[in-house]
Design a protein that fits this description.
By secondary structure, the protein is mainly alpha-helical. 49% of the residues lie in helices and 12% in strands. The protein has helices spanning 19-50, 55-62, 65-78, 94-103, 106-117, 174-183, 187-197, and strands spanning 123-130, 135-142, 153-159. The longest helix has 32 residues, at 19-50. Bound molecules: fe (ii) ion.
Protein backbone atom coordinates (compact mmCIF):
# COMPACT_ATOMS: atom_id res chain seq x y z
CA UNK A 1 0.00 0.00 0.00
CA UNK A 2 1.28 3.46 -0.84
CA UNK A 3 2.10 5.46 2.27
CA UNK A 4 1.68 9.20 1.94
CA UNK A 5 4.29 11.44 3.51
CA UNK A 6 3.95 15.06 4.55
CA UNK A 7 5.60 17.62 2.31
CA UNK A 8 8.04 20.08 3.83
CA UNK A 9 7.42 23.75 3.15
CA UNK A 10 9.97 26.56 3.26
CA UNK A 11 7.87 29.52 4.23
CA UNK A 12 9.62 32.85 4.81
CA UNK A 13 8.58 35.40 7.43
CA UNK A 14 5.18 36.66 6.41
CA UNK A 15 3.52 40.00 6.94
CA UNK A 16 0.49 39.88 9.26
CA UNK A 17 0.72 36.07 9.60
CA UNK A 18 2.70 34.82 12.57
CA UNK A 19 5.19 31.96 12.63
CA UNK A 20 3.05 30.32 15.30
CA UNK A 21 0.02 30.44 13.01
CA UNK A 22 1.98 28.70 10.26
CA UNK A 23 3.45 26.13 12.64
CA UNK A 24 0.04 25.24 14.09
CA UNK A 25 -1.42 25.00 10.61
CA UNK A 26 1.35 22.82 9.18
CA UNK A 27 0.84 20.53 12.18
CA UNK A 28 -2.84 20.19 11.26
CA UNK A 29 -1.87 19.44 7.65
CA UNK A 30 0.34 16.61 8.86
CA UNK A 31 -2.70 15.22 10.65
CA UNK A 32 -4.43 14.79 7.31
CA UNK A 33 -1.52 12.73 6.00
CA UNK A 34 -1.73 10.54 9.08
CA UNK A 35 -5.45 10.05 8.62
CA UNK A 36 -5.26 9.28 4.90
CA UNK A 37 -2.82 6.48 5.72
CA UNK A 38 -4.86 5.39 8.74
CA UNK A 39 -8.09 5.30 6.77
CA UNK A 40 -6.61 3.20 4.00
CA UNK A 41 -4.97 0.89 6.52
CA UNK A 42 -8.27 0.36 8.33
CA UNK A 43 -10.06 -0.52 5.08
CA UNK A 44 -7.32 -3.04 4.31
CA UNK A 45 -7.41 -4.50 7.85
CA UNK A 46 -11.17 -4.86 7.99
CA UNK A 47 -11.29 -6.31 4.48
CA UNK A 48 -8.69 -8.88 5.42
CA UNK A 49 -10.41 -9.81 8.67
CA UNK A 50 -13.90 -10.30 7.27
CA UNK A 51 -14.99 -8.14 4.33
CA UNK A 52 -18.58 -9.32 4.53
CA UNK A 53 -18.97 -8.87 8.27
CA UNK A 54 -17.36 -5.43 8.21
CA UNK A 55 -18.89 -4.24 4.92
CA UNK A 56 -20.75 -1.38 6.58
CA UNK A 57 -17.71 -0.27 8.58
CA UNK A 58 -15.51 -0.41 5.46
CA UNK A 59 -18.02 1.63 3.50
CA UNK A 60 -18.27 4.18 6.32
CA UNK A 61 -14.50 4.59 6.52
CA UNK A 62 -14.28 4.87 2.73
CA UNK A 63 -16.78 7.75 2.78
CA UNK A 64 -14.22 9.77 4.78
CA UNK A 65 -11.62 9.58 2.01
CA UNK A 66 -12.71 12.80 0.24
CA UNK A 67 -12.38 14.75 3.49
CA UNK A 68 -8.97 13.42 4.51
CA UNK A 69 -7.43 13.21 1.03
CA UNK A 70 -8.55 16.66 -0.05
CA UNK A 71 -7.53 18.00 3.36
CA UNK A 72 -4.06 16.73 2.54
CA UNK A 73 -3.95 17.90 -1.07
CA UNK A 74 -5.55 21.34 -0.62
CA UNK A 75 -2.92 22.26 1.95
CA UNK A 76 -0.26 21.14 -0.55
CA UNK A 77 -1.63 23.83 -2.84
CA UNK A 78 -1.90 26.31 0.03
CA UNK A 79 1.50 26.50 1.72
CA UNK A 80 3.71 26.60 -1.43
CA UNK A 81 1.91 29.77 -2.50
CA UNK A 82 3.96 31.62 0.10
CA UNK A 83 7.27 29.92 -0.62
CA UNK A 84 9.83 32.27 -2.12
CA UNK A 85 8.11 35.33 -0.70
CA UNK A 86 5.59 37.80 -2.05
CA UNK A 87 5.81 38.95 -5.67
CA UNK A 88 3.85 41.66 -7.50
CA UNK A 89 0.47 40.80 -8.99
CA UNK A 90 0.97 39.57 -12.58
CA UNK A 91 -0.88 42.43 -14.24
CA UNK A 92 -0.48 42.34 -18.01
CA UNK A 93 0.25 38.60 -18.04
CA UNK A 94 -1.66 35.87 -19.89
CA UNK A 95 -3.21 34.99 -16.54
CA UNK A 96 -4.40 38.57 -16.12
CA UNK A 97 -5.91 38.50 -19.63
CA UNK A 98 -7.76 35.24 -18.93
CA UNK A 99 -9.10 36.49 -15.59
CA UNK A 100 -9.99 39.96 -16.89
CA UNK A 101 -11.90 38.41 -19.79
CA UNK A 102 -14.21 36.72 -17.30
CA UNK A 103 -14.27 39.11 -14.37
CA UNK A 104 -13.83 42.45 -16.17
CA UNK A 105 -10.40 43.44 -14.85
CA UNK A 106 -7.69 42.27 -12.48
CA UNK A 107 -9.16 44.36 -9.67
CA UNK A 108 -12.62 42.92 -10.26
CA UNK A 109 -11.17 39.41 -10.19
CA UNK A 110 -9.54 40.13 -6.81
CA UNK A 111 -12.75 41.68 -5.48
CA UNK A 112 -14.74 38.63 -6.54
CA UNK A 113 -12.18 36.25 -5.06
CA UNK A 114 -12.38 38.11 -1.73
CA UNK A 115 -16.19 38.05 -1.83
CA UNK A 116 -16.29 34.28 -2.35
CA UNK A 117 -13.69 33.97 0.41
CA UNK A 118 -16.10 35.66 2.81
CA UNK A 119 -18.66 32.85 2.37
CA UNK A 120 -20.04 31.60 5.66
CA UNK A 121 -18.62 28.49 7.24
CA UNK A 122 -15.35 26.55 7.07
CA UNK A 123 -13.96 25.69 3.68
CA UNK A 124 -11.83 26.79 0.78
CA UNK A 125 -12.05 29.59 -1.73
CA UNK A 126 -10.41 28.36 -4.89
CA UNK A 127 -9.47 29.79 -8.27
CA UNK A 128 -9.03 27.11 -10.89
CA UNK A 129 -8.65 26.78 -14.62
CA UNK A 130 -11.08 24.58 -16.51
CA UNK A 131 -9.10 23.19 -19.45
CA UNK A 132 -12.25 21.84 -21.09
CA UNK A 133 -14.22 25.08 -20.95
CA UNK A 134 -10.99 27.14 -21.28
CA UNK A 135 -12.24 29.44 -18.55
CA UNK A 136 -11.43 30.19 -14.90
CA UNK A 137 -13.75 29.47 -11.98
CA UNK A 138 -13.82 30.77 -8.42
CA UNK A 139 -15.89 28.68 -6.06
CA UNK A 140 -16.42 27.67 -2.45
CA UNK A 141 -15.78 24.20 -1.06
CA UNK A 142 -17.45 23.22 2.21
CA UNK A 143 -14.88 21.51 4.45
CA UNK A 144 -12.39 20.06 1.95
CA UNK A 145 -14.62 18.16 -0.40
CA UNK A 146 -18.22 19.27 -0.66
CA UNK A 147 -18.67 21.32 -3.79
CA UNK A 148 -15.26 20.46 -5.23
CA UNK A 149 -15.17 20.72 -9.02
CA UNK A 150 -13.85 17.70 -10.91
CA UNK A 151 -11.08 17.90 -13.50
CA UNK A 152 -10.06 21.51 -12.97
CA UNK A 153 -6.55 22.75 -12.28
CA UNK A 154 -6.16 24.63 -8.99
CA UNK A 155 -4.37 27.96 -9.40
CA UNK A 156 -5.02 29.59 -6.01
CA UNK A 157 -6.31 27.79 -2.92
CA UNK A 158 -7.22 29.96 0.06
CA UNK A 159 -7.89 28.16 3.33
CA UNK A 160 -10.92 29.72 5.02
CA UNK A 161 -11.17 27.32 7.93
CA UNK A 162 -10.92 29.14 11.26
CA UNK A 163 -7.77 27.14 12.04
CA UNK A 164 -6.05 28.97 9.17
CA UNK A 165 -6.18 32.31 11.01
CA UNK A 166 -7.39 31.92 14.62
CA UNK A 167 -3.90 32.26 16.10
CA UNK A 168 -3.72 35.77 14.62
CA UNK A 169 -7.34 36.85 14.11
CA UNK A 170 -10.82 36.23 15.47
CA UNK A 171 -13.59 35.06 13.10
CA UNK A 172 -15.00 38.59 12.75
CA UNK A 173 -11.61 39.59 11.31
CA UNK A 174 -11.49 36.98 8.58
CA UNK A 175 -11.29 39.67 5.90
CA UNK A 176 -7.90 40.53 7.45
CA UNK A 177 -6.83 36.92 6.93
CA UNK A 178 -7.83 37.21 3.27
CA UNK A 179 -5.85 40.45 2.89
CA UNK A 180 -2.83 38.87 4.60
CA UNK A 181 -3.07 35.75 2.45
CA UNK A 182 -3.06 37.81 -0.76
CA UNK A 183 -0.42 40.26 0.47
CA UNK A 184 2.08 37.43 0.96
CA UNK A 185 1.24 35.48 -2.18
CA UNK A 186 4.02 34.47 -4.53
CA UNK A 187 2.13 35.10 -7.75
CA UNK A 188 4.87 33.43 -9.79
CA UNK A 189 3.75 30.11 -8.26
CA UNK A 190 0.22 30.86 -9.46
CA UNK A 191 1.44 31.87 -12.91
CA UNK A 192 3.48 28.67 -13.21
CA UNK A 193 0.41 26.63 -12.36
CA UNK A 194 -1.54 28.53 -15.02
CA UNK A 195 1.15 28.14 -17.67
CA UNK A 196 1.24 24.39 -16.97
CA UNK A 197 -2.46 24.15 -17.88
CA UNK A 198 -2.02 25.77 -21.30
FE1 LIG B 1 -6.10 24.36 6.83
Amino acid sequence: MHIYEAEKFTIPSLECISEKQIAVHVGLYEGYIKHVNLLRGQIADLSQQDAEKYAFAIESVRRRMGFEFNGMRMHEFYFPQWEGGATPEPRGSELDRALSEKYGSWDEFVAHFKKVGMSRGSGWCTLAWDKVGKTPHIWWTVDHELGMLADVEVLVAMDMWEHAYMVDYVPAEKSKHIDAFLKNLNWSVVEQRFVATQ
